[in-house]
Amino acid sequence: MNLPNKLTILRVAMIPFFVLFMLLPITGEADKWIALALFIVASLTDMLDGHIARKYDLITNFGKFMDPLADKLLVCSALICLVELGRIASWIVIIIIAREFIISGFRLIASDNGVVIAASYWGKFKTTFQMIMICLMIANLEPLHLFTDIVMWIALILTVVSLMDYLIKNKEVMKETK
After folding, report:
1. Residue 92: partners with Cβ closer than 8 Å, 6 or more residues away
2. Which 3 state secondary structure label does DSSP give 38?
3. pLDDT of the residue at 177
4. Residues 127, 130, 136, 138, Cα dihedral to 10°
């Protein structure tokens, strides 16, 4: 159990606390700020664990499996909480989650064929804008609502663009082999 894997486990362990502060009235107005802090720390552990794993050659099968799963659990949990709170439309969340399922399935098929599909720049931009969008929606600051909406639309567009980019660049993965 190396440091990157511990950070991944920490990220997963933070999710229930994040959800509690998002949805339950625990401390009043401070709830959203605690939830925001938990989300930011959890998001930063994602960047940190990947950096450490690559830099110190600490890549493990556990990390390859759990890191992307932890990321999806964090983002999906946040988006579902935001739907519950009425801060984002469910159809937008469905598109974002559907993209994650499609890419995960696509990567699974590619892996079975011995192909590794690396993250693209579009996917990285998508992730960045989704994280910013989620942070803005958690904070829910009235003066930033227009900016939050703009970031949401950019994140949604990047979600679709990155999906199309993956599918087009890796269409050979779906071809049947005999």
Report:
1. 152, 156
2. helix
3. 59
4. -100
